[in-house]
């Protein structure tokens, strides 16, 4: 295969364009996998973040019960922030799930597709 040099202008494809293409691809993957069930994504992420925050705060709770001073520790603040972020992600999943159900029901569509019908005994 023989390639010829560009005759007019110059290429507009650069590194900045590559990041835009990657972000578009990630958006398409999100739409394909999680458009109908956003709670699967946001609920999972929220549960993980909430769990990590809970573990951190349980650690500091046990230290406090044992008599140690826990005030002014950045890790304590991280634990609280992770708990709040987890709650927000789970709540976002609930809201998006309601929005998707409202969207489909308002158009009379189903949130699922039937791939194949089987009839037994005929």
Total number of strands? 0
Give the ordered list of helices and strands.
HHH
Strand content: under 5%
Oligomer: single chain
Total of helices: 3
Structural class: mainly alpha
**Which stretches are poorly predicted, pLDDT < 50 over at least 5 residues?**
none
Query: What does the average pLDDT come to?
Result: 90
Largest sheet: none
Overview of the structural elements:
The protein is an all-alpha fold and 122 residues long. It has a domain at 34-106. The chain is 66% helix and 0% strand. It has helices spanning 15-34, 38-65, 74-106. The longest helix has 33 residues, at 74-106. It is flat. It starts with 14 loop residues before the first helix and ends in a 16-residue tail after the last helix. The mean pLDDT is 90.
Element layout with pairings:
Layout: H1 15-34, H2 38-65, H3 74-106
Helix pairs in contact: 2-3
Short summary:
Helices cover 66% and strands 0% of the residues.
Which descriptors would you attach to this protein?
mainly alpha, 3 helices, 0% strand, flat
């Amino acid at each position: 295969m023989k390639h010829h040099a560009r005759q007019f202008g110059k290429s507009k494809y650069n590194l900045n364009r590559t990041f835009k293409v990657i972000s578009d691809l990630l958006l398409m993957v999100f739409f394909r996998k999680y458009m109908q069930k956003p709670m699967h994504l946001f609920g999972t992420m929220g549960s993980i973040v909430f769990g990590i925050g809970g573990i951190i705060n349980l650690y500091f709770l046990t230290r406090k019960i044992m008599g140690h001073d826990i005030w002014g520790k950045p890790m304590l603040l991280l634990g609280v922030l992770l708990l709040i972020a987890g709650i927000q992600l789970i709540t976002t999943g609930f809201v998006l799930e309601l929005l998707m159900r409202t969207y489909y029901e308002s158009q009379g569509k189903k949130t699922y597709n039937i791939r194949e019908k089987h009839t037994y005994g005929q």
